[in-house]
Amino acid sequence: MTVLVRSGVGPLCALARAAIPSIWRGNYFSSGNEPAENNPVTPMLRHLIYKIKSTGPITVAEYMKEVLTNPAKGYYVYRDMLGEQGDFITSPEISQIFGELLGIWFISEWMATGKSTAFQLVELGPGRGTLVGDILRVFTQLGSVLKNCDISVHLVEVSQKLSEIQALTLTEEKVPLERNAGSPVYMKGVTKSGIPISWYRHLHDVPKGYSFYLAHEFFDVLPVHKFQKTPQGWREVFIDIDPQISDKLRFVLAPSATPAEAFIQHDETRDHVEVCPDAGVIIEELSQRIALTGGAALVADYGHDGTKTDTFRGFCGHKLHDVLIAPGTADLTADVDFSYLRRMAQGKVASLGPIKQHTFLKNMGIDVRLKVLLDKSNEPSVRQQLLQGYDMLMNPKKMGERFNFFALLPHERLQGGRHQRNARQSKPFASLVAGFSELAWQ
Ligand code: SAH
């Protein structure tokens, strides 16, 4: 499979880092020397130009938010961008084993925390629904283990197009879906295996209750603010219209301090940083929920531990794409700062990770699962696909080292305290957390 996964960081970032100016409306960074035919005036570009003309330059965060999730024209709202025909490919789309191992992770956590009589599986940004579909297949296969547990599925998705694809994948629409665009629960149905499933636009609308949360390649699409250190202090990067070339955007630097500077650490040593307040809000919400009702959250994404500088980039047709060119036609993304996620969880819940994808999947038993599937298949093309998928997920040069796993857990889970709320058996929690150490069934 010759695909470029979205985690690639290429020359574009080096260019952006070198070229951002230190003077507002003086020397400025143009996003590149693209010829006019490569910079089509998309409906999103027109919209942004009107917006900037009327209210002034916008932050990179506002740009990302508009380009990706504007309800009328956003990149994510009306298209299926995943897979080989799309702009990028993700682990669950590469191999069924990925979702299966995550399914095992949730069951392992459910068992380790006392086998509650019910839980919600909540996924943020479910893409095509492939990942949750693979997880639910594992739940069905391990039905004897989960037989007395009431499970419901809750998907947080802003994309109309992708939610329709998820509904088709997960429910086959055997039972008609209930739709109510005006309600926080905009769609409801029943999965192929008979589990109630609901769709929301925001995490805060998902009922509070014992839940397992999953966010795979979700945090990287949340809007980031970009900053550069100058002799006058931190200055935020904005996006403005290029006065030299009509219908072209450029980066500029704010002339004075801006409010998002509050998200930069006082002892920050980098000279360029990206901060993502929305990620902090979501981690806080997840932490409060887990501290209150139990459960766990598993976050998997590409990212760093507070070390990288310029990672904001675009992807179109599996290639790096200039972020300011033809907005609305390419994915925009930035590496997740796991040190920030950890800080936002601190004091409320325990966190584990980030650890590399190849370590996590190895600990979850990927080699055993691959062998079972290979032994079951005589079809050379299926065997080849399984092996190629394994290589893509595990190879350190591909996704193995670029992707990280990070978990939020109630403090009692790691301290061996007793969980009073949802556990049928009140047994101590303390056992190793699968993935972060080798999977061991209790
Ligand atoms: N998890 C999937 C898809 C990743 S792409 C996979 O790994 O294959 C990012 C997903 O997040 C898409 O489903 C997109 O529509 C959704 N998304 C993007 N911004 C969002 C937001 N602000 N709130 C909820 N979902 C969002």
UniProtKB/TrEMBL annotation:
It catalyses: L-arginyl-[protein] + 2 S-adenosyl-L-methionine = N(omega),N(omega)'-dimethyl-L-arginyl-[protein] + 2 S-adenosyl-L-homocysteine + 2 H(+). GO terms for molecular function: enzyme binding; protein-arginine omega-N symmetric methyltransferase activity. GO terms for cellular component: mitochondrion. Gene3D superfamilies: 3.40.50.12710. Pfam families: Methyltransf_28. It is an enzyme of class 2 (transferase). It is found in: Mitochondrion. InterPro entries: NDUFAF7, NDUFAF7_sf, SAM-dependent_MTases_sf. Interacts with NDUFS2. This is Protein arginine methyltransferase NDUFAF7. It comes from Rhinopithecus roxellana. The lineage of its organism: Eukaryota, Metazoa, Chordata, Craniata, Vertebrata. The gene is NDUFAF7.
